[in-house]
Amino acid sequence: MDYFNLVPLTAIDPVLEQSISAALLAYQPHTRAISVNHIRETVLLIYPTCEVPVVILNKHIGDQAIRGGYNVHFDGEGVSALDLASE
Could you tell me if residue 4 is inside a domain? Predict the structure, then answer.
C-alpha cells in the first residue's frame, strides 16, 4: 500500500479530526485493524502501515479531499484512503 498521499489532520474537518485523534490514541501496534465509531460513520478502519496508521474513509470524505486538491485512491469497494502523516 504505497499509493497513499500525506495529508495533515488539519486538512480534514475538526470533528473528524477529533475522532481520528482519539482512535490514534487507542491504537495498538499488535492490532491489525481498529474499528472506530464516529457519529457520521466516516471513519471505518485504521490499519498499521510502517510507522504511520492509515485511516480508511468513506467515499463522501474521499470526494471532499479530492475537491480540496488531494489525490485519493479509490478501491473497488468505493472507499478512499488518506495517509495521516503530517508533512
Answer: no
- Per the confidence metrics, is the pTM higher than 0.70? no
The domain of 54 spans 9-83
Total domain count for the chain?
1
- Centroid of chain to Cα 66: 14
Given phi > 0 = left and psi -120 to 50 = alpha, else beta, which region is 60? alpha
pLDDT (tens digit per residue) in 32-85: 343 333 323 334 344 444 444 455 555 565 666 566 655 555 444 444 455 444
In terms of Cα–Cα distance, which of 2, 3, 22, 5 is closest to 14? 22
